[in-house]
Amino acid sequence: MTTRSHATEESTRWLSDREQCLWRNWLTAGHSIDAGLARQMQQDNAISMADYMVLVNLSEAPDHRMRVAALADRLQWDRSRLSHQITRMRNRGLLDRETCSSDGRGAFIVLTDDGFEVIRDAAPGHVAAVRTMLFDVLSDEQQEQLADILHTVNAQFKDPASDPQN
C-alpha cells in the first residue's frame, strides 16, 4: 500500500504556485457568486436557486415541459435529487408531473401558471444580480477573454456525438 501511494505521489503533476492561486481564486469567485445569487433569490422571491434553475429550464422549453431525464441531464443532477426537488415544487403548485402517453415509464415535468408567474417575477432581479456580480466588474475585453476561456474549458465536457457541428 505504501508503494502505490508513493508512486502516485511521484507521478502527480502538482499545481505551480500560480496555478494554485488561480484555482483557489476560481473556487472563491464561483462560491461567492453562487452564495450571492442564492441570497438574492431567497430574499427577493422566497425561492431557492434550485427552484429557479428548474423553473428557468421549464420556462424556456417548448410548451413549458420537459422529460424528467432531459431535465436531469440539463441540470447535471442525478435523478434522485431532481425527484426530491420536483416533489417539493409540486407541493407548492409550481409544477406538475404528467405521464408520457408514448412511453408509460416516462414522465414530463410541466410548469404551472403559478410556476410561470414565479419565474417571471424572479428573472429581472436574478439578471440584475448576475450583472452586478460578474459583468459590471469586467471590461468588454475581459468578458470576451472569459467567454473564450470558458468555451475552451467546457469543450472537454461536451459529447462529440451530440454536437450538431460534428
TrEMBL record:
> What positions belong to coiled-coil segments?
none
By what name is this protein known? MarR family transcriptional regulator
**Which residues are in the HTH marR-type domain?**
19-155
Q: Which GO terms describe its molecular function?
A: DNA-binding transcription factor activity
Name one process (GO BP) from the record: response to stress
